[in-house]
Design brief:
Order of helices and strands: EEHHEEHEH
Number of helices: 4
Distance between the termini: 73 Å
Helix content: 25-40%
Largest sheet: 3 strands, antiparallel
Structural class: alpha+beta
Radius of gyration: 24 Å
Length: 99
């Protein structure tokens, strides 16, 4: 069997034990399984801060944060809401009302 998890087999580089087509197959195996690929975690989304958040911004600001930070921390703890047209309209109305 082909040692997939190690780059060395029997103290020799794996490439010396396999033919070029086998090495190519191992290299492209990850590409041929899209369900095994990790999602892009650097996608940023816009949120509107409901309260001051240290290091991020003040109340009422629209900021860009990573998707996981918004989904797992800011929105569940009610420190921010997603930046939708409806939420932006409510934000503008609140600014007019308070000033």
């Amino acid at each position: 069997p082909i040692a997939r998890s190690r780059m060395f087999c029997c103290r020799k580089p794996l490439a010396t034990l396999l033919s070029c087509s086998q090495v190519r197959c191992l290299a492209t195996r990850q590409e041929s399984r899209p369900w095994k690929q990790r999602p892009n975690r650097n996608v940023k989304i816009g949120v509107v801060l409901v309260e001051d958040v240290a290091g991020l911004g003040k109340r009422g600001e629209k900021v860009q944060v990573r998707r996981g930070f918004a989904r797992n921390y800011l929105v569940p703890s009610k420190r921010a809401v997603y930046s939708t047209e409806h939420n932006l309209t409510l934000l503008e109305a609140e600014k007019v009302w308070n000033h």
